[in-house]
Amino acid sequence: MKVRSVAIDGPSGAGKSTISKTVAGRLGFIYVDTGALYRVIGLRFLETGALGLDTLKLSLAFAEGEQRMYDGGRDVTEDIRKHEVSKAASDCSALPEVRAFLLGLQREMAMKSDVIMDGRDIGTVVLPDAGLKIFLTARPEDRARRRFDQLQQAGKVPPPYEQILADIKTRDHNDSSRKEAPLRQAPDAVLLDTTGNTFEQSASLVEGLIRERYGL
Ligand code: DC
User: Is the pTM of this model over 0.70?
Assistant: First the structure.
């Protein structure tokens, strides 16, 4: 049977990953977080000062709905979420050799099972034939506020709101102004602006679009 694929792109903090993960769980799709792949490369770059693509043994495992990331035998799932890795991942993701390295891997994953894949260029470059494309966005202030609340709820001390907002704007600029596969809405993508929505409202909208598209 032909597998189903849903591409969800959009800027940082729009809720792509939490929404995709939840909806994938409800529909029995695999959720693939492609940002995590760039983050492993960003982590490496921070730690070693080089990309080291020739020796990079990137792998993923799905355990209880969670995507775990490995660099060789090392589980880097937690380390790639560190604040400083976000910027390094964004910088590394602008390099053509990094994008080329990850392209085949992402396409392979989408051939094996029904997927919801989220990122920046899934609908435009990685899966141009995805059955459904969604461009998920929200105002930067909304995204910064959600990030701030998320960190607090996780028991962490968040950086000041203004700092989070500035970082989000810098990443938006980096991700959408780069030459290689910039962040942009595919012409055939459905635009979903989640500003002011609750999580459940946004998740239901995404779930509804997928059900409608595939008659589920
Ligand atoms: O989604 P994220 O914040 O974990 O992604 C980290 C960085 O990786 C982000 O700044 C842009 C880059 N990225 C990309 O260029 N293309 C993708 N498909 C996914 C992420």
Answer: yes
